[in-house]
Amino acid sequence: MRHNSENWLLKVEGLTKIYGSPNNNTIHQTGPQFDSNICPETNAIVACADINFELFPGEVLGIVGESGSGKSTIVKILYFDMEHFSGNVLFNKEPYIGKNILKESNQSKRAIRNHLMGMVYQNPRDGLNFKFTSGGNIAEKLIMAGNYHVGTIREKASNLLEKTEVPVLRLDDLPAHFSGGMQQRVQISKAIANHPPLLFLDEVTTGLDVSVQAKVLDLIRELQHELGIAMIVVSHDLSVIRMLTDRTLVMKNGRIVEQGLTDQILQDPQHPYTQLLVSSIL
Amino acid sequence: MIQENKFSTQYRFAFIDEATKREIRRKLLKAIAIPGYQVPYSSPEMPIARGWGTGGLHVTLAIIGPNDIFKIIDQGSDASVNACNLRNFVQTMTGVETTLDTAKATIIQTRHRITEEKLSKDQIFVYQVPQPEPLRSVERYENKTRQMHGEADYAKMWVSLYEQFVRHGDIMLGAGYPVKVNGRYIMAPSPIPRWDIPNLNNSEAIHLFGAGREKRLYAVPPYTKVEPLEFEDVKFHIEDFKGIPCFRTGYQKAFLDELYYDDGSKHYVINDSNFLDKKMNNEAPIQHENHYLNKLENEA
């Protein structure tokens, strides 16, 4: 599908998140040119400011940057885990067309989360309930979408586990007893349970060993090809970004410093910070 | 002269002061207006400790009038310690007539049972509730559970039922099976057995729930839909006493107690003491009707 200014899936306009009590100069006195996101006057912390981008259906967008640059803040706000400070997020799906979804009621936010979005956290403990079995965790998403038939729930959960290469035999085991890679794959099954058009991946491979990382990345790429899900991939790891994403935003001190096609950014970085980032790949 | 009048009795009618009674009544009206919604209330001091039936007592004392006839049961029995003491207390404080006869009572206070005999539209049923929050087992924070109720976000509750089915092959809730009231709020019916749950549905009587320790009131108004939570393929069912008659009356269609005698023998007897007495006297008390009971009868 051709991307144009009309057919985007998600549009973010001026998204800002500030901790503390900012004044009028806060935004102007922070950012990469000051090499700080702490306001010198008020000590307010600018987690991210003036973030603008569009995401197209089936596209994979990477967000890269150092720790504390505001990468995770963006996806957490988009997934309603965090309150925003200002800005608009538009979702191009009925019945939300033309509305700022950050201003919706909690109920419709939950409906958006259940039907239109999935989230895979860095730590499986954030995305999974370790007191429930892996099947139960997937069931939670299916039940939230109005599925109240145990047989169907189990069938769907088995299929999802199969798709993510978790042995179906472990459907009724607690994820606490799983390896880190398997927990991450259960989390992915849960995130895609309702076939959402949009998936957030927040540092999904951090903390996994290299071979497991490769497997998880393979899986994500396969799912992307098979299901055509649009994804926002947050990582500080440029090889993950290179492998998964079509387009990349580079962030520093809560601002986007550079954006463009992933290959272009990695081959020909423009901003000094991006140059540093690319040149420091081991 | 006013002073003499004021102190002529030691306590005012029904023990609680009028202002607090009004507060409780106001909260009860709110509870009835929003079936299944838990309304916070003052839970004033009583001469018994909170959590020993004070919630039910508050409700009873706030609504009782001099012409009421009061009955109280504890696990189906009129004679257990909790029932006797609270009956004496209410009787002393109000002077109302008390009874053991379910059909004759206008207010019935209960702990953990609904009477076997059918309730009429002239009766009010008052429950003593230990834990009013059905979601407490899946969410420990009160602010979270209130939000979950507000947004009808009950997925966690459902998952816990799914988990029980997966682990044990059935939904393992013997008492206090969660119900959905009027298609909206999930409610803890107090720890009544599953046997009694269908009797809440479309009942002619008013059902008022008081949790003294947790300071919550809630209600099921008459003719309100009350459905136990069940999956499309894993259904709610009541206790199965198939082939086990009451050893004193031979009756099968009632909730039974299991008794062990000193010689080690096991006996089953009707749990509801007034219902048992009536059956022993060959009276014919009218029972609740629901399709679970009807199914039992058809199978028998």
Care to describe what's here?
Chain A has helices at 71-78, 106-116, 124-127, 134-144, 150-163, 180-191, 210-227, 238-244, 262-267, 272-279; strands at 10-19, 45-55, 60-65, 86-91, 117-120, 198-202, 230-235, 247-252, 255-261. Chain A has a single domain, classed as 3-Layer(aba) Sandwich (Rossmann fold). In chain A, the strands form 2 sheets. In chain A, strands 5-6-7-3-8-9 form a 6-stranded mixed sheet, sandwiched between helices. Chain A is α/β, with parallel strands linked by helices and 282 residues long. In chain A, a hairpin with a 2-residue loop joins strand 8 and strand 9 (255-261). Chain B has a domain at 2-135 and 164-228: 3-Layer(aba) Sandwich (Rossmann fold), CATH 3.40.50. In chain B, 28% of the residues lie in helices and 17% in strands. Chain B contains 8 helices and 12 strands. In chain B, helix 2 (18-33) packs across helix 3 (54-63). Chain B starts with a helix and ends with a helix. The model of chain B has no long low-confidence stretch (mean pLDDT 93). At the A-B interface, helix 2, helix 4 and helix 5 of A face helix 6 of B.
What is the secondary structure topology, with strand pairs?
The complex is a heterodimer of chains A (282) and B (300).
Chain A: E1 10-19, E2 45-55, E3 60-65, H1 71-78, E4 86-91, H2 106-116, E5 117-120, H3 124-127, H4 134-144, H5 150-163, H6 180-191, E6 198-202, H7 210-227, E7 230-235, H8 238-244, E8 247-252, E9 255-261, H9 262-267, H10 272-279
Parallel strand pairs in A: 3-7, 3-8, 5-6, 6-7
Antiparallel strand pairs in A: 1-2, 1-4, 8-9
Chain B: H1 2-6, H2 18-33, E1 39-40, H3 54-63, E2 69-74, H4 81-94, E3 97-98, E4 107-111, E5 124-128, H5 142-150, H6 155-168, E6 179-181, E7 185-187, E8 206-211, E9 216-220, E10 226-228, E11 256-260, E12 266-270, H7 273-280, H8 291-299
Parallel strand pairs in B: 2-3, 2-4, 4-5, 5-8
Antiparallel strand pairs in B: 1-9, 6-7, 6-10, 8-9, 11-12
Helix pairs in contact in B: 2-3
